[in-house]
Amino acid sequence: MTLHILGASPSDRTTFESCRDTLMDGDTLLLIEDGVYWALPQHRPELARLPARVKLLKADREARGVELEALAEVDDSGFVELCLENERSVSWF
Amino acid sequence: MTLHILGASPSDRTTFESCRDTLMDGDTLLLIEDGVYWALPQHRPELARLPARVKLLKADREARGVELEALAEVDDSGFVELCLENERSVSWF
Amino acid sequence: MRFTLVVHSAPYQSASAGTALRFARAVLDAGHQIHRVFFYREGVHNASALASPPRDEQNLPQEWRALAKEHDLDLVVCIAAAVRRGILDKEEARRYEKKAGNLAKRFELSGLGQLIEASVVSDRVVTFGGGR
Amino acid sequence: MRFTLVVHSAPYQSASAGTALRFARAVLDAGHQIHRVFFYREGVHNASALASPPRDEQNLPQEWRALAKEHDLDLVVCIAAAVRRGILDKEEARRYEKKAGNLAKRFELSGLGQLIEASVVSDRVVTFGGGR
Amino acid sequence: MSKSILIICRSAPYSSSSARDALDMALAGAVFEQPVSLLLLDDAVLQLLPGQRSSAIQAKNPNAMLGALPMYDIEHIYTSLGSLALHGLQADSLEPAPTVLDAEELRHFIARHEVVLTL
Amino acid sequence: MSKSILIICRSAPYSSSSARDALDMALAGAVFEQPVSLLLLDDAVLQLLPGQRSSAIQAKNPNAMLGALPMYDIEHIYTSLGSLALHGLQADSLEPAPTVLDAEELRHFIARHEVVLTL
Q: Where would one find the signal peptide in this protein (chains E, F) (predicted)?
């Protein structure tokens, strides 16, 4: 299992699509930095279609004023936990 | 009249679309740096639909191995000329 | 578990420079080890001894130094990336005939082999990119 | 005609650092004037006196210095952007209690007012960005 | 001597120093008594999202400073319909509320300025 | 001790130092006798365009060094069908010719490596 870490804003579709196309069942996608803007209502439908579990990084989401609503988030220690639960991480930026 | 200078690759659609949406009749679009990849056959149809004259920066095009074919290019002194022919320049990156 | 962090961005260039520091703290707080932090590409500027941010702004070079002191971290800056970009230790300053170096204390210049070694011996490697 | 150039990127961060230098040469070759080159954001690293690229690589700080010497160019580095990022002249080095500065000769630290003034008095202003 | 200066920022608030650098440029223009316009395109419209608690990442919130621009005689912050649409935002839910330009207005807006600085 | 290392580069050859930095990482892996794979995604596939005359911009052509990787026991340069499609390129017109992974192969390819370094 792989932890995918996406830090790019939805305005960077190429990065999102490359990340999306490498997700496998059982993988986790962690949205950090400008990646948390994927949780804006406009972009959620695409998140919902991903085959991976999706989590947001709490500090980055709060900083940017994005609502959590029905999504799951982790704090920095949860980020570390996700790294341990998965065998490898791939960063997309 | 405005000189628009686009340095972003076609993989950055957001930058292209913002640039495109500000072009007026009589404006010139100069493709520099990774912007010259817009001259790849795959991306040409979109260039052809722009309301502006399109030029490539020669050194950047040659460096990246992109064919000129039916497009127009300028060398660095032509870049300076384009700045003078237009009242202002807007850089997109 | 043993972590290695790879940092590609300079402090003001990308949010990821700050994310890396927060992650490092979280790793240590959870009782895990950091085998190495490897600064590559523009990330070498995290090791500037001359960076002088306003008081009300985060000072990443200083915070890395403090964390390294507290936890005896191995902060390695890629020597080839650093020298090109004007980050020099005393020895490199001499070699390139510059008056003084500017590598902050607790950071060390070394080769990419240190990244490969760290990748091999660590349980997890996490890249903090941004600004491709 | 009078040009002002604004440079936002560091030498290895974006191709635009090199584009700016080529453009400056072309302006001068065509017999026009450069009122000022203003280095902002990561562009401040073009003014590093410590950058030491391999011999077979372009050395942008050195080439800017040479061009400035030949044409008496006004190379202004935004002081607020520079100090944060660890580019200091002698005076700033003293102010922040650092042993030495690292601003290359021919470059000068000054405020954003220099960019505004240059924008007002120049016929054309061209931004060399990259790495938003 | 005076020139109309347009500053175009296209970056989200914390992705880099870009948002704050654009503000500093705008303020410098105002201090030197030049007519300055600030146009937030694409991700830069995200600078106007309310409720940013940036202390969580030890960063300064550019949003607060955007609200102070009228004190420097920069009365309007501009954005485009396209930028709002990119992230599905409504102007009246943003703080400070921007002046929204449609496609045609945007083109003429740019052409109305003598100097355009982008970042 | 040995680990399989995947290096993913996503940058065009001259947009930044990324392409050359990825190569340096791959070579360092090979020198330290680790099994290294180099995957060029998205704009990085443009590193393989033939006929790059980079002396025009005083830059080194990473293409030449990519061709030398087999000497360091890095036999394959990988890319994806999606990356070729992004720029409308054919693998057999590229130099050196990459090994192309379809979507399914790409996912398994990543999962096969113990360490993934991106830039």
A: none
CATH number, position E79: 3.40.1260.10
The complex scores an ipTM of 0.97
Considering D24, D47, D78, D109, which one is annotated as catalytic? D78
What CATH number corresponds to the domain at position B83?
Answer: 3.40.1260.10
Domain span holding position F57: 5-118
Taking residues C94-115, report their average pLDDT.
98
Domains of chain D: 2-128 (3.40.1260.10)
Q: Domains in chain A: how many in total?
A: 1
Give the pLDDT score at E39: 98
Is a pLDDT exceeding 80 seen at residue C132? no
Q: How far apart are CA D68 and CA B92, in angstroms?
A: 27
- Partners of chain D (3+ Cβ pairs below 8 A): B, C, E, F
Mutate to test the interface with D, among E17, E27, E115, E118 (most CBs of D within 10 A): E115
Closest CA to C46 of C76, C73, C26, C24: C76
Q: How far apart are CA F85 and CA F88, in angstroms?
A: 5
Of A32, A33, A76, the CB nearest to C26: A76
For range C87-106, the mean pLDDT: 98
What distance in Å separates the CA atoms of residue B92 and residue D17, rounded to the nearest whole number?
15
Residues of chain F with pLDDT under 70: none
Contact A42, A59 (CB under 8 A): no
Is the bond preceding F62 in cis, omega lying within 30 degrees of 0?
no
DSSP annotation of D104 reads P
Task: Please identify every stretch of chain D with a pLDDT value under 70, giving residue numbers as ranges.
Answer: 132
Number of structural domains found in chain F? 1
Q: Give, for all 93 residues of chain A, the pLDDT tens digit.
A: 999 999 999 999 999 999 999 999 999 999 999 999 999 999 999 999 999 999 999 999 999 999 999 999 999 999 999 999 999 999 999
Provide the pLDDT for residue A6. Answer: 98
Percent of chain E with pLDDT over 90: 97
Q: Which domain holds residue A9?
A: 2-92
Q: How many CB atoms lie within 10 A of CB D74?
A: 18
Identify whether C78 is a catalytic site residue.
Answer: yes
One-character DSSP codes across F22-47: HHHHHHHHHHTT--EEEEE-GGGGGG
Say whether residue B12 is in contact with chain A using an 8 A CB cutoff. Answer: yes
Angle between helical axes of D16-29 and B76-85 (0-180°, round to 10): 80
Is the pLDDT assigned to residue E64 strictly greater than 90? no
Residue B36 has pLDDT above 80, yes or no: yes
What values do phi and psi take at D74, rounded to 5?
A: -95, 100
List subunits contacting chain E, requiring 3 or more Cβ pairs under 8 Å: A, B, C, D
Q: Is any Cβ of chain C less than 8 angstroms from the Cβ of D78?
A: no
Alpha helices in F1-119 (DSSP H): 18-31, 62-67, 81-87, 103-111
CA–CA distance, C113 with C98 (Å, rounded to integer): 26
Nearest to B65 among F50, F57, F88 (CB): F50
- Rounded distance between C-alpha atoms, residue C72 and residue C66, angstroms: 10
CA nearest to F83, candidates F69, F101, F57: F101
